[in-house]
C-alpha cells in the first residue's frame, strides 16, 4: 500500500526512474502548453465562458474523488486548466504582468522541490541565503549601506506597505504594540497612490479617516506644497504625522514622486514642531526596477540607447537615485522584474529598526533562538514563508544589471514609438501621461479637450460624457481581448471642472508594454487592432 503512495513522490535515493517519472510529468505540461500557444492570440485555446452560473456549476460539481486519480491522470486533468487562460505574450498589454523568465521558473521549481520554510535558516537554508544575497544586491542598487540595511520577501507591494506602516507606528509610539494605537496618528499619500495604504489603515486600526490624500501635479507626482500645507493642518489640530507614502511609479500612470523633496519637507516639519521620526516608505513596487539605471554611464552609453530613450531614463535616474532617503522601499519583481507571483522584496535602510516589531524569544518556542541557525525572521507578519528569494535571485544573476537595463529601456523605446503611431492614427486621441512603460490615452467624441480638462476649463457633464465614451471603447476592445488585451482605468487622475463641487476622475485606456516580445517591429499590429475595433464599432458620436 505505502509502496503505491511512495511512487507518487520524488525519490529518496535519487534513482533515475523516479527522476524520469517526474520529468515526464513536466514534459506533459510543457507540451500541452506549447500546443495551445498561438502567436496571433493572447488566449491559450478557446476562452472559457465565464457566464453568471459558471461558478455555481463548479460549486455543485466539486467533490474529492473517493479513489484518487493517481499522478499521471491528475496531470492530464491539470493541463486542462490552461485551456482558455491568457498567456503573457505580446498581445497582453493590460497591466504590469510579466512572462516569468526561464531562470526564475527554474528558481521557483527549486524552491518547491526543496520546500524550505523561509521562517528559519535551519529549515530554509537556500531561501535564507538568497534572501540575504538579494537584500545586499538591491541595497547596493538603491544606495542603502548593505552593512546596515535589512530585508525580506513578503506578500506583495501591499505587504510592504502594511509592514512599513506597522514599523512607523511602533517607532513613533513604542507603547502602541502593547496598549493599542493612539487616536491622533496620521498618514499621508498622494491621491494617485495605490489602495494598499487605504487597506493598511483599516487593518492597522488607525482608520481611513486618518489617511490624508495629497494632490498631484500634472506629471502625476505628489504636489509638495499641498503636502506641507496638509501636514501643518493636521499638526495644528493636534494630530501626529507618522507615515508618508511616496510613490515611485504610480500604478496606472507611472507618476514618480520627488522623494528628496518629500524628505526635506518632513525634516523641516519635524524640526519646527519638534516631532518624533516621520517614517517614509517609498512605494516603488511599480517603478523600483528603474533604479538599475542609477549607475548607468549616460555619457558613454555602453548599451547604445537612442537619445530619446536616454532622455527618459536620465530623468528617471534623477528621481530613483533619491530612493535611499526612504526608511524602506519595495521591489515587486512580479511586475517589471520578470518573475512569477509572488516575488516582492521589502528593503529597510536600518535593520535595527525591525526590533520595534520583533517578537520576544519567549513567544516563539518551537523555532529559532536555538543553538543552531542564526537567521530567524520573527519580525515578519507571516510565520511560514515561501522561499521566493530563490526565483528573484535566479532572475537577477541570469539577466544581470545589463540584461535588466536592456529590457527596461525597451519598454521605453516601444512606448515612445507607440505614442507617435497612436496619435498619427487617431486625430481624436490624447496621450495623458509622461513617457513610461505604460501609456495612458483618452479618446474624444469630437475635438481633444485634455488641456481644458486638466486646467478645469470644462463642465462636469462634458467630462463625464467623455468618460463614458472611453468606457464604451474599453468595453468594445475588451470583447476582443483573446486577440489583444488592452487595459483601462477609471481613475487616471482627478480634474476639477468649473461647475463641480468635487474632483472628477478621468477614464482612460492603457497600453502596458511588459513583454520581451513587444518590440518596435510589432507595433503596427496594435494600431491596426485599435483601428479595426474602434472604427468598426458604432462609437464615433456624430454632431447632432
Ligand atoms: C502593484 C502595486 C502595489 C501592490 O503590490 P502587490 O504586489 O500587488 O501587492 C502597491 N503599490 C503600487 C504603486 C503598485 O503598483
Automatic annotation (TrEMBL):
<keyword id="KW-0663">Pyridoxal phosphate</keyword>
<dbReference type="InterPro" id="IPR002129">
    <property type="entry name" value="PyrdxlP-dep_de-COase"/>
</dbReference>
<dbReference type="InterPro" id="IPR015421">
    <property type="entry name" value="PyrdxlP-dep_Trfase_major"/>
</dbReference>
<protein>
    <submittedName>
        <fullName>Pyridoxal-dependent decarboxylase</fullName>
    </submittedName>
</protein>
<dbReference type="Pfam" id="PF00282">
    <property type="entry name" value="Pyridoxal_deC"/>
</dbReference>
<comment type="similarity">
    <text>Belongs to the group II decarboxylase family.</text>
</comment>
<dbReference type="InterPro" id="IPR015424">
    <property type="entry name" value="PyrdxlP-dep_Trfase"/>
</dbReference>
<keyword id="KW-0210">Decarboxylase</keyword>
<keyword id="KW-0456">Lyase</keyword>
Amino acid at each position: 500500500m505505502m509502496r503505491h503512495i511512495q511512487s507518487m513522490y520524488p525519490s529518496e535515493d535519487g534513482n533515475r526512474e523516479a527522476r524520469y517519472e517526474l520529468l515526464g510529468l513536466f514534459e506533459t505540461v510543457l507540451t500541452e502548453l506549447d500546443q495551445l500557444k498561438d502567436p496571433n492570440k493572447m488566449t491559450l485555446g478557446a476562452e472559457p465562458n465565464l457566464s453568471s452560473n459558471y461558478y455555481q456549476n463548479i460549486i455543485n460539481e466539486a467533490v474529492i474523488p473517493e479513489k484518487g486519480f493517481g499522478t499521471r491522470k491528475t496531470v492530464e486533468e491539470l493541463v486542462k486548466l490552461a485551456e482558455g487562460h491568457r498567456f503573457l505574450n505580446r498581445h497582453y498589454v493590460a497591466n504590469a504582468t510579466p512572462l516569468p523568465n526561464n531562470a526564475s521558473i527554474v528558481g521557483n521549481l527549486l524552491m518547491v522541490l526543496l520546500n524550505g520554510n523561509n521562517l528559519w535558516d535551519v529549515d530554509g537554508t537556500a531561501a535564507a541565503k538568497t534572501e540575504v544575497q538579494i537584500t545586499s544586491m538591491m541595497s547596493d542598487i538603491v544606495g542603502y549601506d548593505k552593512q546596515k540595511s535589512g530585508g525580506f520577501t513578503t506578500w506583495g507591494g501591499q505587504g510592504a506597505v502594511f509592514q512599513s506602516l506597522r514599523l512607523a507606528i511602533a517607532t513613533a509610539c513604542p507603547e502602541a504594540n502593547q496598549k493599542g494605537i493612539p487616536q491622533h496618528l496620521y498618514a499621508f499619500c498622494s491621491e494617485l497612490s495605490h489602495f494598499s495604504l487605504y487597506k493598511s489603515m483599516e487593518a492597522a486600526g488607525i482608520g481611513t479617516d486618518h489617511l490624508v490624500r495629497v494632490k498631484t501635479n500634472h506629471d502625476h507626482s505628489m504636489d509638495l506644497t499641498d503636502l506641507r500645507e496638509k501636514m501643518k493642518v493636521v499638526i495644528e489640530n493636534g494630530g501626529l504625522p507618522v507615515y508618508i507614502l511616496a510613490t515611485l511609479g504610480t500604478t496606472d500612470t507611472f507618476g514618480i514622486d520627488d522623494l528628496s523633496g518629500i524628505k526635506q519637507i518632513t525634516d523641516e516639519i519635524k524640526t519646527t514642531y519638534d516631532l518624533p521620526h516621520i517614517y517614509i516608505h517609498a512605494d516603488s513596487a511599480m517603478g523600483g526596477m528603474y533604479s538599475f539605471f542609477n549607475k548607468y554611464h549616460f555619457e558613454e552609453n555602453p548599451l547604445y540607447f537612442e537619445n530619446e530613450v536616454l532622455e527618459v531614463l536620465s530623468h528617471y535616474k534623477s528621481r530613483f537615485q533619491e530612493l535611499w532617503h526612504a526608511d524602506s522601499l519595495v521591489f515587486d519583481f512580479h511586475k517589471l522584474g520578470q518573475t512569477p507571483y509572488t516575488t516582492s522584496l521589502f528593503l529597510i535602510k536600518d535593520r535595527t529598526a525591525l526590533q520595534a516589531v520583533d517578537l520576544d524569544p519567549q513567544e516563539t518556542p518551537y523555532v529559532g533562538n536555538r543553538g543552531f541557525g542564526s537567521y530567524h525572521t520573527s519580525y515578519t507578519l507571516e510565520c511560514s514563508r515561501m522561499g521566493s528569494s530563490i526565483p528573484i535571485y535566479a532572475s537577477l544573476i541570469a539577466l544581470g544589471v545589463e540584461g535588466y537595463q536592456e529590457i527596461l529601456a525597451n519598454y521605453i523605446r516601444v512606448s515612445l514609438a507607440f505614442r507617435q503611431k497612436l496619435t498619427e492614427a487617431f486625430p481624436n486621441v490624447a496621450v495623458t501621461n509622461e513617457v513610461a512603460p505604460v501609456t495612458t490615452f483618452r479618446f474624444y467624441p469630437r475635438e481633444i479637450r485634455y488641456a481644458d480638462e486638466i486646467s478645469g476649463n470644462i463642465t462636469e457633464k462634458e467630462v463625464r460624457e467623455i468618460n463614458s465614451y472611453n468606457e464604451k471603447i474599453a468595453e468594445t476592445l475588451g470583447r476582443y481581448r483573446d486577440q489583444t488585451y488592452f487595459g483601462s482605468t477609471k481613475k487616471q487622475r482627478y480634474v476639477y471642472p468649473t461647475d463641480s463641487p468635487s474632483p472628477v476622475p478621468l477614464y482612460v485606456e492603457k497600453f502596458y508594454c511588459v513583454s520581451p516580445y513587444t518590440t518596435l517591429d510589432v507595433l503596427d499590429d496594435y494600431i491596426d487592432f485599435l483601428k479595426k475595433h474602434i472604427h468598426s464599432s458604432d462609437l464615433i458620436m456624430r454632431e447632432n
